[in-house]
Specification:
The protein has 131 residues and is α+β, with helices and mostly antiparallel strands. It has five helices and four strands, in the order E-E-H-E-H-E-H-H-H. The chain has helices at 29-34, 54-65, 81-85, 106-110, 118-130, and strands spanning 14-18, 21-26, 42-47, 73-78.
């Protein structure tokens, strides 16, 4: 990981997806404008959004065992553990109740009450964790 790899247009809340792994960069717009070469302070790597996409799960497992050396805070997040552990295909299931990718709309995250679907609850937890 190198801050030199981050294009200047990526700002707070930007997410890149590489083979079932989402990488979120945390940097304010002002930080980016004032010093576009400044190092990243926090990177979140989220894998396992879909339980049947094994690459993200494998990378998380490897990085949890041996964290990569970095100059920033690194958060490793398993997005949908229940889908990853679900049986049926032998490789997990894409999702248990609903597609986790479809649960991050602001209307879904702010809806009153406790969501019925596990993925909707997990989306709220991830949103609270990473913003």
């Amino acid at each position: 990981f190198s801050s030199g790899l981050m294009p200047p247009r990526l700002l707070t809340g930007s997410v890149l997806v590489f083979s079932s792994v989402a990488v979120a960069f945390s940097m304010t717009v002002d930080e980016r404008r004032c010093n576009p070469t400044s190092p990243l302070s926090h990177v979140a790597i989220v894998g396992g959004t879909h339980g049947n996409e094994r690459m993200g799960l494998a990378l998380l497992k490897e990085w949890q065992a041996t964290p990569p050396k970095s100059t920033f805070q690194l958060s490793l997040v398993l997005a949908n553990e229940k889908a990853a552990e679900a049986t049926g295909t032998g490789a997990g299931r894409r999702y248990v109740d609903v597609d986790l990718n479809r649960c991050f709309a602001l209307t879904d995250l702010t809806r009153e009450g406790v969501p019925e679907a596990g993925e909707e609850r997990r989306a709220r937890e991830i949103d609270a964790l990473l913003g």
